[in-house]
Specification:
Domain ABC transporter: 5-241
Keywords: ATP-binding, Membrane, Nucleotide-binding, Transmembrane, Transmembrane helix, Transport
Number of helices: 21
Largest sheet: 7 strands, mixed
InterPro entries: AAA+_ATPase, ABC_transporter-like_ATP-bd, ABC_transporter-like_CS, P-loop_NTPase, Permease_MalE
Strand content: 5-15%
Organism: Aeromicrobium alkaliterrae
Strand order of the largest sheet: 6-7-8-3-9-10-11
CATH class of the largest domain: Alpha Beta
Number of domains: 2
Structural class: alpha/beta
Shape: elongated
Bound molecules: adenosine-5'-triphosphate
Radius of gyration: 31 Å
Protein name: ABC transporter domain-containing protein
Number of strands: 11
CATH topology of the largest domain: Rossmann fold
């Protein structure tokens, strides 16, 4: 049987926006519970809080004794292995076909053979009617198929708690009913605790054992279907009948701002229920029929639920009308506080990436793919920039040394300028502009498609799986390209100094060997390592923290490139100053 989820006094804010506060409810073990509410009332935020993906400011979420609010990320990753989650659009990984998507949690968390994995995957695909479609990638299947594939993936590890975000979104009524029936069959077969977020009235009437409703930042009602569906609470009955008249308006923001209390007198006096109104002239005094498994398999949760209702253990909760709490608004964090928080989070991600580099299993394939990708998009621009850069430095220094009568130092000055300064900066600017921007866009679009959250709820750490390979790819690519850019820059400088400005080849090389030392060459590569690391961490940080929507991804890419450039010049200044102070020049 699935676990019990006990939510106590839970509150969540975003900036100054109070999403909901003091939410208290219990998801009874093995039963199906639906959470309803108009758009924007924070149903998805609540679901993510239960998964530990969103951090509420107050309250607790106890799952068999573990508090998801206070648990460390490592504990949450472990707890989430007990969850199966179906996101709104399935949150399938776009780079894998349906089969690999469904097999993913088994490959990550079990030592099963491929033959065993195949048997489980095909059984789940059969359950959701997707046999024959397993070789298609998410871009080739319909919204409904994505949902069913997401459901199959959420079931492969036999989860104890199944969380489902809007199973009906984007589906026609028949497929919605089929999916609801499928969820009931799954509940009968697994006895898992299920929480379904929806605003589909038919689904809410026929599927769950318990229902709750969020409205105007609070849980207005929660309890067994037998009571909830027969209530005359104006908010609940308006919502359940889809009536445009009533306390629920066009937008949650406007509803929030209204300061008058909700009128709790029934809109339809005389004890008529929402069901009566649904049936028009024919009064219906009984509950709508609840879906039962067509397989004929008994649903143990239904018996336990009946028992709880008849013994009086299951009670309907109705929120008191409390205006003061509702009107509460929180102070917004200042710009400086937000900037400092971002810098702190960026550092924390950098440290986490270093720590996670030494954790197993290491995503070698992802590293190789990312390294190849970063090098392939960066090497041509890097080379094209290196030649004029080397030439400009050689011409400038060549002219200057002639002016002061020190032509014999031209070689040393140009090579050191290219190797120590120009090459690492050029390389990393190109890596940040080409590779880093693409990494940021990739992670950002995965985030807005819920792929990152899907990974976390499967108990997989995105830092180990996604960030470490990308950061290391940037570091290795920076070292490799820095070497190439140095060579091309030095050759370019030699060509312009010796061929164009008439310098002597022997003097060019002799001055270099006389004045430069091996550490001068090393410092360039050390800079490349550090700059590559900075470019990779900033790109991943902005990608993983992208705001919702395509504009959010665009903004994140822009900020990632700008922030990397600023950091690079600052870090270069610090390293150069330290090097020149700490390492005496040859012959100094
Ligand atoms: N990461 C976030 N940052 C800031 N605000 C957020 C974030 N996620 C959600 N919100 C805000 O929280 C509120 C509730 O959003 P949520 O998606 O939970 O609503 P919902 O009830 O699931 O709506 P719908 O039924 O339309 O999906 C919205 O105002 C949304 O803008």
């Amino acid at each position: 049987m699935g676990g019990t989820v006990e939510v106590e006094g839970l509150s969540k804010t975003y900036g100054s926006q109070n999403i909901w506060h003091d939410v208290t409810l219990t998801l009874p073990a093995g039963e199906i519970t639906a959470l309803l509410g108009p758009s924007g009332t924070g149903k998805s935020v609540f679901l993510k809080s239960v998964m530990g993906l969103v951090q509420p400011e107050a309250g607790s979420i106890l799952i068999d004794g573990t508090d998801m609010v206070r648990a460390t990320e490592a504990m949450r990753l472990e707890m989430r292995k007990r969850f199966g989650v179906l996101f709104q659009d399935g949150a399938l990984f776009g780079s894998m076909n349906v089969y690999d998507n469904v097999a993913f949690p088994l490959r990550e968390h079990t030592k099963k053979t491929e033959a065993d994995i195949r048997a489980i995957v095909m059984e789940k695909l059969d359950m959701v009617g997707l046999v024959g479609q397993e070789h298609k990638v998410p871009g080739e299947i319909s919204g409904g198929m994505k949902k069913r594939a997401g459901l199959a993936r959420s079931l492969v590890t036999d989860p104890e708690i199944i969380l489902i975000d809007e199973p009906d979104s984007g589906l026609d009524p028949v497929r919605t009913s089929n999916l609801a029936q499928l969820l009931v069959e799954v509940n009968a077969a697994t006895d898992a605790t299920m929480l379904v977020v929806t605003h589909n009235i038919e689904l809410a009437r026929t599927m769950p054992d318990n229902l709750g409703m969020l409205y105007r930042r609070e849980l207005v009602m929660f309890g067994p279907r037998e009571d909830f569906l027969l209530t005359d609470h104006p908010v609940v009955s308006q919502f359940m009948s889809g009536d445009p008249e009533g306390p629920i308006g066009m937008s949650e923001e406007v509803d929030h701002r209204r300061d008058e209390p909700v009128d709790l007198t029934p809109a339809y006096p005389g004890g008529t229920s929402i069901l009566t109104r649904h049936a028009g002239a024919r009064p219906v005094e009984v509950l709508p029929r609840q879906l039962t498994p067509k397989s004929g398999r008994p649903r143990p949760a239904a018996d336990r639920h009946r028992e709880r209702v008849s013994s009086g253990a299951a009670q309907l909760y109705i929120a008191p009308d409390d205006e003061t709490d509702r009107a509460r608004s929180l102070p917004r964090k200042g710009l400086v506080t937000r900037a400092l928080t971002s810098v702190g989070d960026l550092f924390a991600l950098g440290l986490d990436a270093i720590r996670s580099t030494f954790r197993r299993p290491f995503a070698v394939r992802e590293l190789l793919e990312q390294f190849w990708f970063v090098v392939s998009v960066s090497w041509i621009p890097a080379m094209l920039v290196a030649i004029p850069f080397g030439a400009v430095i050689a011409l400038q220094l060549g002219t200057l040394t002639v002016q002061v009568g020190a032509q014999s130092f031209t070689g040393a000055a140009s090579v050191l300028a290219v190797v120590q300064q120009a090459a690492p900066i050029v390389t990393t600017l190109v890596i940040a502009g080409a590779g880093g921007a693409a990494i940021c866009a990739d992670l950002g679009s995965r985030r807005i498609k819920d792929e990152i959250d899907a990974m976390r709820v499967m108990g997989i750490d995105p830092v180990r799986r996604l960030v470490v390979p990308r950061v290391l790819a940037c570091v290795f690519a920076a070292v490799l390209l820095n070497g190439l850019v140095s060579v091309v820059g030095v050759i370019g400088g030699y060509f312009f100094n010796v061929v164009v400005q008439g310098g002597t080849p022997g003097a060019y090389l002799a001055s270099f060997t006389a004045l430069a030392q091996i550490s001068d060459l090393w410092v360039g590569e050390i800079k490349a390592v550090i700059f590559g690391f900075v470019a990779g961490v900033v790109a991943c940080y902005r990608g993983l923290n992208t705001a919702p929507g395509p504009k959010g991804v665009g903004d994140a890419v822009n900020q990632s490139v700008v922030v990397t450039f600023l950091l690079l010049f600052f870090v270069n200044f610090v390293i150069t100053t330290l090097y020149l102070q700490l390492v005496p020049g040859k012959g100094a």
